[in-house]
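Quick one, probably user error.
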């Protein structure tokens, strides 16, 4: 079973092109929506990085046997964390355009979202759907994907985003999230869009060197390379899974 995990501000629609390229049958894959990201937020769900990790471990636990994990953005961070905490349930993992790196201090928008008042003001600004779609495309999101995702960026998602980024201090990782990477299953892969406007390629290169993980770079692609270059990602995944 393959589990695809999307990030911020995406829904499982992100993965439709690569699922199509891989020719997967329904019983072969799942792309569960994170609470608040195209799925309801349970009343007792905290929307923190650890709450989402526990949620993902629960989703993996529904698989009979081991799962192949594929994550993008925050989905990539959650895949890495879940794989460290439940390695016995992970057949392999692949992450795209986000890794847990103690030297990375977060992009500007992440830091704004992590700051009380500033974060709320920024969320007020993105309520204009047309302006938001334009901004996402300018940030590298494929236009077709932006048209799919923007209608789902509602109040629940905006509130979930603020809570998530504040729990991570604007993408500043330390402590167990970093230390436990030593437990990461060895069968991993990093897939990266070279021109990512949010996380520079050097972050991926540093992670790949540190943990001796293969890195595939899509030249000229951005943060959403996993959607933009679905055919190439499908090829990388086939080779990764065949190892």
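Nope, works fine. Designed sequence:
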């Amino acid at each position: 079973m393959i589990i695809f995990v999307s990030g911020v501000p995406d829904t499982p629609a992100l993965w439709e092109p690569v699922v199509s390229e891989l020719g997967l049958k329904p019983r072969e894959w799942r792309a569960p929506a994170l609470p608040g990201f195209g799925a309801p937020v349970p009343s007792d769900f905290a929307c923190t990085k650890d709450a989402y990790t526990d949620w993902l471990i629960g989703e993996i636990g529904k698989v009979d046997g081991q799962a192949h994990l594929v994550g993008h953005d925050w989905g990539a961070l959650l895949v890495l964390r879940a794989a460290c905490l439940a390695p016995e349930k992970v057949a392999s993992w692949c992450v795209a355009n986000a890794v847990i790196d103690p030297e990375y201090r977060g992009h500007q928008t992440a830091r704004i979202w992590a700051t009380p008042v500033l974060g709320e003001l920024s969320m007020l600004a993105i309520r204009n759907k047309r302006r938001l779609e334009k901004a996402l495309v300018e940030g590298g999101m494929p236009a077709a994907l932006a048209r799919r995702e923007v209608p789902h960026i509602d109040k629940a998602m905006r509130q979930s985003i603020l809570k998530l980024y504040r729990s991570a201090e604007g993408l500043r990782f330390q402590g167990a999230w970093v230390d436990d990477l030593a437990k990461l299953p060895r069968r991993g892969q990093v897939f990266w869009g070279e021109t990512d406007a949010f996380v520079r390629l050097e972050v991926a290169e540093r992670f790949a060197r540190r943990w001796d993980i293969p890195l595939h770079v899509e030249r000229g692609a951005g943060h959403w390379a996993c959607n933009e270059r679905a055919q190439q990602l499908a090829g990388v995944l086939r080779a990764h899974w065949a190892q």
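The first strand starts at residue 2 and ends at 5.
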